[in-house]
Amino acid sequence: MRQNVTVKTLAKELNISIGTVSKALNDSYEISIDTKQKVLELAKKLKYERNPAASNLRSQKTKTIAVIIPQIANNFFSLAINGIEEIARKRGYHVLIYLTHENSEIEIAFTDSLLSGRVDGILISVSSSTENLDHFRELVNKIPVVFFDRTIEDIDAIKITADDYESTYDATVHLINNGCKRIAYLYALSCLNTGKRRIAGYRDALKDYDMESGENLIVNHHNDDDQNYENIKNLIISQKPDGIISSIEELALPCYYVCNELGLNIPNDLKIISFSNLSTAPLLNPSLSTITQPAFEIGREAAGFLFKILDQKPFDADEIPKLKSILIKRDSTGPL
Amino acid sequence: MRQNVTVKTLAKELNISIGTVSKALNDSYEISIDTKQKVLELAKKLKYERNPAASNLRSQKTKTIAVIIPQIANNFFSLAINGIEEIARKRGYHVLIYLTHENSEIEIAFTDSLLSGRVDGILISVSSSTENLDHFRELVNKIPVVFFDRTIEDIDAIKITADDYESTYDATVHLINNGCKRIAYLYALSCLNTGKRRIAGYRDALKDYDMESGENLIVNHHNDDDQNYENIKNLIISQKPDGIISSIEELALPCYYVCNELGLNIPNDLKIISFSNLSTAPLLNPSLSTITQPAFEIGREAAGFLFKILDQKPFDADEIPKLKSILIKRDSTGPL
DNA sequence: TTTATTTACGAATACGTTTTAGTAAAACAC
DNA sequence: GTGTTTTACTAAAACGTATTCGTAAATAAA
Prior knowledge:
Two copies of one chain form a homodimer. The first copy, chain A, is α/β, with parallel strands linked by helices. Chain A is built from twelve helices and twelve strands. In chain A, the strands form two sheets. The first copy, chain A, has a six-stranded parallel β-sheet with strand order 2-1-3-4-5-11, with helices on both faces. A six-stranded mixed β-sheet of chain A has the order 7-6-8-9-10-12, sandwiched between helices. In chain A, helix 1 packs across helix 2 and helix 5 (75-90) runs parallel beside helix 12 (295-310). The longest helix of chain A is centred in the first third of the chain and has 16 residues, at 75-90. The first copy, chain A, is elongated and about 85 Å long. The N and C termini of chain A lie far apart (72 Å). The interface between A and B is large, with 47 and 47 residues. The structure holds a DNA duplex.
């Protein structure tokens, strides 16, 4: 069944040309107020809905943006999408969601499929396993792209992030101030700027405060949860750290389980702080100190800048904000 | 800038007609293997990407589905989207996300905008504030729709849900078995089947076990978080329940905060169980007993049935599963 | 060999919209 | 009054693909 009411229907009914109808619907200056009113009225009466495919084809605009993210069952990304959606909805844009599941090949498949003009712009948070950047190079040449949170170097595009370096530095200092002497680091996102900046903050803080450091205090994130659990357990047993900084939320909870298993008390035996947007952080046993990123605002800002590009509004590089995370001190890093 | 390489480009290069190219790309039986190979090869070489708008316009298919949900910063919906995305990606479909923010007017705006043929099918979880169903009636007449989790009566469409009645019944019995005498109920989604079935399970269990009941043991969910907190606090103070069943995750955490404020011990003074997909439920203080819905599977099933409709595969009504939630007993309902 | 069928392609049209170019009529300038 | 501009519209051409219909050649059936 073909579309029931089109511009043709309206045109015939009103005895005017389809061009006039189209222009009236688009509020063109060429059309008299009188005619516009008649068209709009009839359109409403007949429940005319513009065919998006035809419109896209002719105008080369889709009123759609794509959001490519590594996962969605994660409070950070859920909140970021909320921010993105708010901006998109206000502008009448549609939002396509693509989940890479931290898999670079899937990411490539998605970016390739978006080269065809399906969307007007793209928001990306890069998969943790992405090393080769060719697919992004091609993409940013063809379509407006804004990266958010998970960003990469050597790609010429706008990037919206939080203060990864500073917040990790501050978190490390927080542990030092609370008496930690051996602070371990759970290292994730090591391929991305995000991960590199975070660990740099940790390393610099250790150096500035003359604390113990060393590669054996650093545990790399692994894709396998059981492996992560074992690695963390080994770290705690063999290195006996008295503080842990987790660069992602997913590695904080295993720490709790390991401490349960080993009979260690948080924060007395081991203090823990983690990047996290968990709403239940205050209710954990003990409540979890967090570096909480402004996820919603990151989403909003990213979408905002994407639309600035789409609107061809000029802006300076120094308008691009680096958003502030907040350090929330709770019992997991509490004194005794 | 118009599309750089189209069927026309390929046709010219290979000295064949546009129609042949199109058919070759669609693997039509009309085209020889030889020609298909040539076309596919050149397409790959020139990085031809089919123009979706043109394709949609002509074929009246969009290879896109819409997912309309009330919120996304919620583990249930995140997981459901994961399930939906898995199915959609396997079939090469694109997924549009719409968040109603539990607002019926926004919901109506979305459903109306989807009448224009932007998508091939729709998955919906109804907003809690939706009472008037006219927009759904119109929608299901025009486009394949599958409802999931948050469903409504009087609409002729496939509905994928979990065993809301049975699981709430079982949870109530669990509290009774653990010694509760006055069991309160935090009542949400009261406009929807989902909410009605849940509370029916609670009520029937109370009746079957000759337990105290009454409207003053029931607290209605409110859109304002502070109001919910106050209502729960009032409930606990004035009614002194020894058990609480929360029909949604969002109301369970305020119970914890209220107990903290009032100095009540969970589970000794008050046992709590809640519908929830929180990954941190085991780590809360105390760990939270939950009715956990198979969110991922609900998403998968819903998407699966939508594609059955799109494929015009016939199926029986009794093929539609009612998925089983699991009752996870933890410390918040533990004996002493 | 003759006839029927299959194979492999091309020409042309349609999908519904937007946009360009053209033009009567009306309004204005002098 | 003439000449110029403005207003409000139309006709027609695109956008890139999918599909219908027609057909010449190749193959199979008789």
